[in-house]
Amino acid sequence: MKKVVIIGGVATGASAAARLRRLDESVEIVMIERGEYISFANCGLPYYIGDVITDRDALLMATPKLMKDRFHIDIRIHSEVTKINPSQNSVTVLSSDRGTYEETYDYLVLAPGAKPIDFNFQGVSSNKVFTLRNMYDTDRIKTALDGVEKAIIIGGGYIGIEMAENLVEKNIEVTLVQALPHILAPFDDDMVILAENEMRQKGIHLLLSEKAIALHETDTGVSLELESGNVVEGNILISAIGVVPDTNFLKDSGIALGKRGHILTNEQMQTNIPNIFAGGDAVTVTDFVTKQETAVPLAGPANKHGRIIADNICGIPSKYKDTQGSTVIKVFDLTLAATGNTERQLSLQGLEHQTLIIHPNQHAIYYPGAEPITLKLIFNSNGVILGAQAIGTEGVEKRIDVIATLLRMGGTIYDLTDLELCYAPPYGSAKDPVNFAGYVAENVLTKKTELVHPRELVNIKENTNVVVLDVRTKGERNFGKVDGSIHINVNELRDHLDELDKGKEYWIYCAVGVRAYVAERILKQHGFQCKNIIGGYKTISELGLIVP
Cβ(273)–Cβ(107) under 8 Å? Predict the structure, then answer.
């Protein structure tokens, strides 16, 4: 009879345990968990704190009693593994009720997860400073919110953003401090700025490119000093500056670790020691696009890791086939979703890529309630899809899920044009946003259009050969324009060709890029040099490049 010891629960540990039992009724399974809760919905914790989720027990996905009764698993909570002894096939356990003892295994599964990065300056020990990782942290924060009027959050990742939203919904004034120029690293700057604007409109004080350097307790809470000289006051502070793998106990075990402490595994989630497996937030994986080593602390991959580990222990060949980093987050009334690599990541890797931004409606424009989706597609000169991001109020994650599926299958932008997707006026358009992105990308690769990013407008005055051409209506132009641009309505363009200079290059914009493409085709066929400004006036204005 095989004996499997699992260190840690939640996504990987609990998934591995349940899968093992479903595959093999005879295997002995021991789960060792440092805390009290072996499986909880950590993605739901901010929403419980914000009272969106009101039933605390709903967050508990599986209790020790359930796992014991249904799966006949030996659950040992309040027990911490302090040492791994691979040569003896044993672990050293420090338990609240049994003291220190040795537990043997045939197979060992490591699922320790990740822990918040230390808030490493004076004040970290204050009882007014919190992190959010587990149910214990959740209960502490929820209790501490009584009487809180102002809160400081450090970190613009998922936890920081979700906590900011939920605290605002509880009528707490929130200041979010982010050391980087923008929040939410899985999104490019030209996309995430929409979420930043949404947060400001909802009352959040968003301090970007601001590094915290000191923390002091005050009579009413805490005072945070920033490198810029600014000082932020709050009743409490929540640190959400990121996570690191919780793998200190593996030192001197002989298990191979990466530079940042992540457990190194192969495709079978097997460590360098054959009968020891690992998964979840504590391991590195391979990026699906770049094939580089990466770490993706997401629930979906962690659950897959547990299933794959159980399969391989039971003799079923199973592999983890790299990560796309597909993700979605709610930011008040907006939804942001992404898959694959960002433009920023690809640039850092030196990988060739092209981008486009479009603003189609989520469903037929004539059906009530049509709202735009801002969709960014990233692809290479062969048409291979490298990544996508989208932001909007509805239908966002649906489009990214479609592109994520195609990316996983090795699809190209030409496949986007061929996709036959569900259509009815309340749900989409005959030419779905996904199809539309494919059509624009196809035009780029077949040289029917040339795109230029709005960010290039900041250097426009240095290039006397470039003229910015606005092809919208006069009414639209009255609400804002690019400084120095000339204006000709696209419908009148053919009548004004003699006013244009073929020795100049024209950068064209309309509202979202469609009419600019029509103008581009007209001009090119009359011998003019021209480019279409990506995303049109909508993207230009979102980036603050307009003159009212």
Answer: no
Q: Alpha-carbon Rg of the chain, whole angstroms?
A: 27
> 531: closest CA among 514, 511, 517?
517
Confirm if 154 and 239 have CB atoms less than 8 A apart: yes
Written as six digits, the tokens of 153 are 């959050």
DSSP state of 133: S
* Per-residue tens of pLDDT for the chain, all 548 residues: 899 999 998 889 999 999 999 999 999 999 999 989 888 888 999 999 999 999 999 998 888 888 889 999 999 999 999 999 999 999 999 999 999 999 999 999 999 999 988 776 665 667 899 999 999 999 999 999 999 999 999 999 999 999 999 999 999 999 999 999 999 999 999 999 999 999 999 999 999 999 999 999 999 999 999 999 999 999 999 999 989 999 999 989 999 999 999 999 999 999 999 999 999 999 999 999 999 999 988 889 999 999 999 999 999 999 999 999 999 999 999 999 999 999 999 999 999 999 999 999 999 999 999 999 999 999 999 999 999 999 999 999 999 999 999 999 999 999 999 999 999 999 999 999 999 999 999 999 999 999 999 999 988 877 789 999 999 999 999 999 998 899 999 999 999 999 999 999 999 999 999 999 999 999 999 999 999 999 999 999 988 876 54
Catalytic residue among 43, 314, 510, 530: 43
Quick one: which H or E segment has residue 29? strand 28-32
Task: Report the relative pairing of strands 354-358 and 107-110 from DSSP bridges.
Answer: unpaired
d(CA 525, CA 182) in angstroms, rounded, equals 41
Asked whether 187 and 212 are in contact (CB, 8 A), the reply is no
- Is 506 in contact with 469 (CB distance < 8 Å)? yes
Task: Let me know if 43 is a catalytic residue.
Answer: yes
The residues pairing with 547 across neighbouring beta strands, listed in sequence order, are 481
Distances (CA, A) of 302 to 11, 43, 85, 122, 380: 6, 13, 25, 34, 30
CA separation, residue 474 to residues 294, 466, 471, 478, 497 (Å): 50, 22, 9, 6, 18
Distances in Å between the alpha carbon of 397 and those of 299, 339, 393, 439?
Answer: 16, 10, 10, 20
